[in-house]
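To: structure desk
From: M.T.
Subject: fold request, one chain
Message: Could you run this one when you get a chance? Sequence is below, nothing fancy, just the single chain.
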Amino acid sequence: MVTANNKKPRFALGQVVATPGALDALQAAGQTPMELLQRHVVLDPGELDKEDQQTNEEAVTNGERILSSYLLKDGTKIWVITEADRSSTCLLLPDEY
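Reply: Done. Structure tokens follow.
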């Protein structure tokens, strides 16, 4: 697994926000938003397929939206989305999109 300890951040997160559903899911799993943000900012692939990983690589260079998908310890899926202008990053459940 890629961690913030062995890779440098690839882009700015901007203002970080989270939906109530994502916060509840993180709390239920005993995890923190920081765990996912540290993975997101180094483009840890998480649950992304090769095509979506390549899209994220290009998005860093081209200034487009970056999407990560991670499973919490209890199996709940959380998305982390950084806007194209890097003004904000949101943690949310897929059904909240």
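Reply (cont.): The longest strand covers residues 66-71. Let me know if you need anything else for the meeting.
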